[in-house]
């Protein structure tokens, strides 16, 4: 295809020719270091694994695709910048989609073999990635940078992924079969999947090294947003002060970053992120349990069985 001819280095092409591959939702996924990835992001993965130099003060948001990354990016950006960017009509999140303020390493900064100039980023630098824990650039493991991980009930994640992919393939959404996509998801064949390896990799590390890695679940954040925003602030060493508590900073940030508020901003209705995706595609329903409206009871049971089997004994549940 066009991308393979024009945008992938010889080194990447040689690698791709050796990897197992599968056709999923109109794209070819390759299995690299145990996870599935399309050719274009894979080139970005290789580039960031080779070149990204983490600093001790960096914060890296790591997520499974469609688990609430956009929300976490907005919350973290608002939290970290709250001293010099209070919530006003001039806040950067009013004019920018969260993905343009907290950029992906492999999907954005390092795509097309770019090696970005990160000198203008002020500390603490905030980046994001979907890479599995073991595949993070070495410097992330070696430095004291912090990792914040977010995942979500795989049933809702799958439904969200399916809708998102249909939007991305707007010219022929009807030929993406829901059943085939579900079957592949259950086999672990989806971008950055299998989901169980992704989630367990970060979960186990959060138990080993809670100072380094904060593990969050979308459902918990929806249920107790104040508690988790305070945890986030503490974890990244900028706790909410007593004065900020009396000023209502926690509710202010949560309200500003809420699904309804972000979705209704002009930039998120009309704009596109730098990678070309329409901003509106990142805001669909924002609810827990929407899978019930899309999966049959049998499909729900099948995924629940996989979840039970894979996470059994880990202490983790959805
Ligand atoms: P749904 O498709 O279930 O609605 P990601 O940001 O990782 O791509 O995940 C997208 C999911 O997060 C979508 O889920 C989207 O609606 C939801 N989402 C986006 N912004 C949100 C917010 N501010 N609060 C809660 N959920 C949000």
UniProtKB/TrEMBL annotation:
GO terms for molecular function: sulfotransferase activity. Coiled coil: none annotated. SUPFAM superfamilies: P-loop containing nucleoside triphosphate hydrolases. Keywords: Transferase. The keyword Transferase applies. It is an enzyme of class 2 (transferase). The keyword Transferase applies. Residues 56-314 form the Sulfotransferase domain. Its EC number is 2.8.2.-. Belongs to the sulfotransferase 1 family. This is Sulfotransferase.
């Amino acid at each position: 295809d066009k991308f393979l001819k024009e945008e992938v280095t010889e080194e990447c092409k040689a690698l791709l020719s050796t990897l197992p591959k599968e056709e999923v939702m109109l794209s070819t996924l390759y299995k690299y270091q145990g996870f599935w990835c399309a050719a274009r992001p894979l080139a970005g993965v290789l580039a960031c694994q080779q070149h990204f130099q983490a600093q001790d003060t960096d914060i890296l948001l790591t997520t499974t695709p469609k688990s609430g990354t956009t929300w976490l990016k907005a919350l973290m950006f608002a939290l970290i910048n709250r001293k010099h960017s209070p919530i006003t009509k001039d806040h950067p999140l009013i004019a920018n989609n969260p993905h343009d303020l907290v950029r992906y390493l492999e999907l954005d900064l390092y795509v097309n073999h770019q090696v970005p100039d990160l000198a203008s980023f002020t500390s603490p630098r905030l980046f994001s990635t979907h890479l599995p824990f073991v595949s993070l650039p070495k410097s992330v493991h070696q430095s004291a940078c912090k990792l914040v991980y977010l995942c979500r009930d795989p049933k809702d994640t799958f439904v969200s992924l399916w809708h998102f992919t249909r939007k991305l393939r707007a010219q022929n959404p009807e030929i993406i079969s829901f059943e085939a996509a579900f079957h592949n998801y259950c086999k672990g064949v989806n971008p950055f999947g299998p989901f169980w390896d992704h989630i367990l990799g970060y979960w186990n590390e959060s138990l080993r090294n809670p100072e380094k890695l904060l593990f969050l679940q979308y459902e918990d954040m929806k249920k107790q947003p104040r508690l988790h925003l305070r945890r986030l602030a503490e974890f990244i060493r900028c706790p909410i002060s007593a004065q900020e508590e009396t000023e209502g900073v926690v509710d202010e940030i949560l309200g500003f970053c809420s699904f309804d508020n972000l979705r209704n901003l002009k930039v998120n209705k009309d704009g596109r992120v730098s990678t070309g995706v329409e901003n509106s595609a990142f805001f669909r329903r924002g609810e827990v349990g929407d899978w019930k409206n899309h999966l049959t009871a049998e499909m729900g049971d099948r995924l629940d069985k996989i979840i039970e089997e894979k996470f059994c004994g880990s202490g983790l549940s959805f």
